[in-house]
Design a protein that fits this description.
- The chain has a six-stranded parallel sheet, with helices on both faces.
- It is α/β, with parallel strands linked by helices.
- α8 links the parallel β4 and β5.
- The relative contact order is 0.17.
- The radius of gyration is 17 Å and the shape is globular.
- The chain has nine helices and six strands, in the order βαααααβαβαβαββα.
Length: 213
């Protein structure tokens, strides 16, 4: 059975990219560069760090300057502007009803992650959070996934990993976990499953669990 899910946060649990992309654009504009939003959207799909590094090179800006101004603008974003994707709560609730666990592994900080969960009443549905504050190597390194499995006593055969970027898939698969790409277009990886909508993932989990009876 599938009892556990390891979730990414940005672009997977919560629709945060519009706020992130908008804040980056405001930051680079303030620093003197006019960057098309589409360009930023493409770069952040790889990672926020990659986006900032690329923009710094292309527009001859300091990375730390972009980071600092970005953080200023992003701090003004409210949790209400970053809602969970449709179907997330349904899946989380279903796993909890099975006695399973929802776990987060994210590059986001702990306080920001907890703020989002609390704003939408999801906090109690998550058994564990592994954030950048825990100090594990960033994805695609699988260290945080091995830690999640060990400290939550997860059976890998009962666990799936879901994220919207290639690094999420690479990290999960390196840890030996079935990995699902959400609403993404893989280039350098082969996900175990691709879903565009969470209703599809919900049906997939239910179908897999029925096979066990």
């Amino acid at each position: 059975m599938i009892r556990n899910i390891i979730w990414d946060v940005d672009g997977t649990l919560f629709d945060t990219y519009p706020a992130i992309n908008g804040s980056i654009r405001k930051a680079v504009n303030q620093l003197g560069a006019d960057v098309p939003l589409k360009q930023i959207e493409t770069l952040t799909r790889i990672s926020l760090g990659h986006c900032i590094s690329e923009l710094a090179v292309r527009y001859q800006l300091e990375e730390k300057a972009i980071e600092g101004v970005f953080e200023h603008f992003y701090a003004e974003v409210t949790a209400a502007e970053c809602p969970p994707f449709p179907g997330v709560m349904k899946i989380c609730s279903y796993l909890c009803s099975l006695g399973g666990k929802n776990i987060i592994i994210t590059h986001r900080g702990k306080s920001g992650t907890e703020e989002l969960l609390s704003a939408f009443g999801l906090g109690e549905m998550f058994a564990d959070l592994i954030t950048r504050d825990d100090g594990y190597a960033r994805k695609p390194d699988p260290a945080a996934f091995f830690a999640a499995v060990e400290r939550n006593n997860l059976k890998k055969e009962e666990t799936i990993n879901i994220g919207d970027r290639e690094i999420d898939i690479q990290a999960g698969q390196a840890a030996g976990i079935f990995s699902v790409l959400y609403a993404g277009s893989p280039v350098n990886v082969k996900p175990d499953l691709i879903v565009e909508y969470y209703e599809d993932l919900y049906r997939f989990i239910q179908e897999q669990n029925k096979k066990e009876y």
